[in-house]
C-alpha cells in the first residue's frame, strides 16, 4: 500500500500550500473514515476503538471549528485595528492548535498503520516459512512412501516368482 495519496485521489490535498485546502482535505478524510465506520459496523474490537476515537475527534473538531467560526462574527464587528489584530491572532492561534491536534492524530494513525504493516509483513514471512517447511515434509513423506511401495512391490514380485518357480517345479514332477 502506498502512502496516504490513495485516499486523496480527487479533491483537496493535505500537501497543498493553501491552508484552507489542507483543512478541507483533513475534514474530508475524517468524514470518509466516519462514513466507512458507519458502513462496516462488524469490524473486530481494535477497529471499534479507532472508530470511537475518530468519532470523538470529529465531534471535538466540529465543536472547535464552530467556536472559531463564532469568533469571526465578533471579529467583524471590531473597528479598532489593534483589537481586530489581537482577535485575528487569537483566531490564528486557535486554528494552529486545531491543525496541530489533527496532525498529531494523523501521525498517530500513520505510526499505527506502519506497525500493522510491519506485523503483516512478519506474519507473511512466517506463513511462507511454514508453507516451505510443510512442502519439505510432504516431499520427504512422498519419498518415504515411494520407497516403501517399491520395497513392497519387490517383495510381492519375489514372492510371485518364488511361487511360480514352485508351481513349475510341481508341474515338472
UniProtKB/TrEMBL annotation:
It holds the Pfam family NYD-SP28. Keywords: Coiled coil. Residues 1-22, 34-58 are annotated as: Disordered. Residues 46-131 form the Dynein regulatory complex protein 1/2 N-terminal domain. GO terms for cellular component: axonemal dynein complex. One of its GO terms (biological process) is regulation of cilium movement. Residues 1-10 have a biased composition (Acidic residues). Residues 121-170 form a coiled coil. This is Dynein regulatory complex protein 1/2 N-terminal domain-containing protein. It comes from Lottia gigantea.
Amino acid at each position: 500500500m502506498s502512502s496516504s495519496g490513495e485516499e486523496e485521489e480527487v479533491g483537496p490535498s493535505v500537501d497543498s500550500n493553501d491552508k484552507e485546502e489542507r483543512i478541507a482535505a483533513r475534514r474530508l478524510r475524517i468524514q470518509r473514515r466516519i462514513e466507512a465506520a458507519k458502513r462496516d459496523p462488524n469490524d473486530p474490537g481494535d477497529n471499534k476503538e479507532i472508530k470511537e476515537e475518530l468519532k470523538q475527534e470529529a465531534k471535538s473538531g466540529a465543536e472547535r471549528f464552530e467556536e472559531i467560526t463564532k469568533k469571526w462574527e465578533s471579529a467583524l464587528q471590531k473597528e479598532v485595528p489593534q483589537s481586530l489584530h489581537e482577535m485575528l491572532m487569537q483566531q490564528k492561534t486557535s486554528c494552529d492548535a486545531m491543525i496541530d491536534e489533527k496532525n498529531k492524530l494523523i501521525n498517530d494513525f500513520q505510526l499505527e498503520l506502519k506497525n500493522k504493516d510491519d506485523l503483516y509483513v512478519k506474519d507473511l514471512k512466517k506463513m511462507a516459512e511454514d508453507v516451505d517447511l510443510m512442502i519439505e515434509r510432504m516431499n520427504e513423506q512422498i519419498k518415504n512412501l515411494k520407497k516403501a511401495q517399491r520395497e513392497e512391490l519387490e517383495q510381492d514380485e519375489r514372492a510371485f516368482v518364488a511361487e511360480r518357480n514352485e508351481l513349475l517345479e510341481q508341474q515338472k514332477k
